[in-house]
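Posted in: Structural Biology > Protein-Ligand Complexes

Title: Requesting predicted complex, zinc ion in pocket

I'd be grateful if someone could produce the C-alpha cells for the following input. Sequence and ligand are given below.
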Amino acid sequence: MAYPQWIEVDGITKKPIECNFEDRGDQEVDAVVLHYTAGASALSSWKWFNTPKSSASAHFIVDRDGSILQCVPLDMKAYHVGRDANLAGSKSANSKSIGIEISNFGLLVTYKKQLCTIDDKEFIPYDSAKYGEPVYGAIALGDPTPQHILDGEQPAAFFEGYWEPYKPAQILSVHKLVRLLREGIEEIASSKILGHSDIALPLGRKQDPGPLWDWFGMFALLGIPYDVGLKNHKSVSFIGCEAVTNVRSAMLNSPDLLALTENKTSELPPKSDT
Ligand SMILES: [Zn+2]
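-- Reply #1 --
Done. Output follows.
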C-alpha cells in the first residue's frame, strides 16, 4: 500500500484519536463511505470518536464551515460501518474503506410540535438560524438503481421528513477530499464511492448521508458517469428536491469549484511507502 497516512494540505487538520482504530490486516482500500455525524460540531464528534466506549470512528470529519479533521491515518481501519455492513460482497467493509463523516444532524425528529435533534436521549430544538432552514426530503431504496431514477424521475418516498441541509463550503470540501483520495489511491473504484445507507444491512438500517446529499452533482463534478457512480447504490437521493438542485447550481458557478475542477493535480499529497 503506497499512499500517505495523513493528508497534509490546507484545510485538513491532523488530529489523531487514541482509540477505535486498528490495522487493516491484508485488506486493500478500494472504497470511500460517506456518513453524517447526527451531531453538532466536528469537535464534538471527534471527542466521541476519542472515547473508547463509543467503538466508533472515521478517518475524516468535515465540519459545516468546510474545515476537515483527520482523526485516523489512512493505513489504519476506522470503525465507521457496523460488522454487518456489506461492501459489494465483502464482509470487511471497514478494512477496505475510508470513512468520511459530514457534520450534519440528518433526519430531524418532531417532539412537542417542534423539530428537534436528539443528544444523549434529550430533545434539543433544531436551531434554523444556526444550521439552516430544514428541508423536506425522502430516500428511495431499491437494488439495483432503477432506470427511472437514472433518468431523473423522483423515487418513491422512504424515510420522509425534514433534514438539515448540507452547507456549500462543506459539500465543496467533501468533493475536494474525495478527489484527493482518488488521486492518491488509484484502487478506489468509481463505483465504490458510497453512502453508509448503501452498505448497512439490513437495507434501511442506516439513512446517512440522506436524501440531501447530492450524489448526482458529486459524480458530475468528479467526472464519473452516473451509471458507474451509482452502480452499488441502494439508496438514492431525492433528486427532485429543489434545495439540492439550487445548491448544485450555485456551486457549479462558484469560483472555488471552478478552481478545483481546473486544477486537478496541484494539491496531490506526496505518495510515501511508510
Ligand atoms: Zn454512518
